[in-house]
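seq:
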Amino acid sequence: GLCTNLLLSQTPEHILAQTNNKTEIHCKLRKEHAGVYWYRWSQERQKFQFLIFSNSLGKAMYGTNISQDKFSVHGVSSHTSYSLHISHLHASDNGTYYCSVSQSSQLLLGSGTQLGVVDVLPLPLKTTQAPVSKKNVRCITKRKTTSKKGVCSPLIWVPLTASVLILLLSLVPTAHRLHPLRRRLWLRIHRQ
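struct:
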């Protein structure tokens, strides 16, 4: 199973990077583990992809069709801090990246980092602030408090959706095994 956990903290939450550049995602563990896994959730393909596992000795194991030139993991000697380096960024690298550790036959996920790759980075907006009356300030404050209650972060729903998908996929072999039993039972009833 997969679940999000407070044992891992992941930064930053969002990255907007330019094509052909590089970026890095940091993962801090509350306690030492044998190594860290990295996964990418693709909204477009609706699937999790295993990228790389790096053990505490620095040895890496890559997922299927994952380029060693593109992904690398760097850790510190304490084995509680790792960073995923992604180079030669391309639009296909868009997605939410998760660091993960294995504990009691579960994969514990970090909070996720959403990566967006664009050809041209947007220019920062130059804004001049006009003086705001006290009435407007009250309205803005109220709006902020109500929006916090009503909006759910996609970082909560993505791991939850992934867990449900994995659970459903794990039921397929069970259903496949039960089909011949059901057929035998049906034949036995009709023979009687």
